[in-house]
């Protein structure tokens, strides 16, 4: 049984994330989508909210599990017997940071491989920050997020903008 982790902030989940998660689900027997803490980002959604949105957005995919973890990604991978970390690469601009994380993770856990999947061209420009900005200023986020969680994401973004 081959297990992979799809890690990220998922603040909130976008169609770009779902694209990568679906691709990973075809390559591995079991894929754990893990909401982790990125110390460089100030999240808008709690870990529980992000997990809940992910659970709804991945409902139709059989071999997916959703988890949350505050600790090292490689520790989470070891706890779950995962052999790979799967991440999406959108553009060259993603590369340096992702490469740095992949090499660090390899130093910490040489047996866990990081794999990069290329996003579909349709989602190349997409990010959670773009979704938050568009939603905050009243734009239409429906082309960027899964239908089933659209209203919930928009409501939370709007709630936050009133604080
Ligand atoms: O979606 P993001 O913000 O690009 O994901 C980054 C994330 C959450 C995967 C990364 O920050 C992470 O792995 N955090 C857990 C802590 C950790 O292991 N840090 C060392 C990686 S170099």
The gyration radius over C-alpha positions equals: 15 Å
Overall spatial form: globular
Low-confidence stretches: none
By DSSP, the count of extended strands is: 5
Based on secondary structure, the structural category is alpha/beta
Mean pLDDT: 95
Describe this structure in words.
- By secondary structure, this protein is of the alpha/beta class.
- The chain has helices spanning 15-27, 47-57, 73-79, 92-108, 128-136, 147-161; strands at 3-8, 30-36, 64-69, 84-89, 113-118.
- It has a five-stranded parallel β-sheet, with helices on both faces.
- Helix 1 links the parallel strand 1 (3-8) and strand 2.
- The longest helix is centred in the middle third of the chain and has 17 residues, at 92-108.
- The chain is globular.
- The N and C termini lie far apart (46 Å).
- The relative contact order is 0.20.
- The mean pLDDT is 95.
- The structure holds 4'-phosphopantetheine.
- 4'-phosphopantetheine (PNS) binds at residues 7-9, 36-38, 41, 72-73, 101, 104-105.
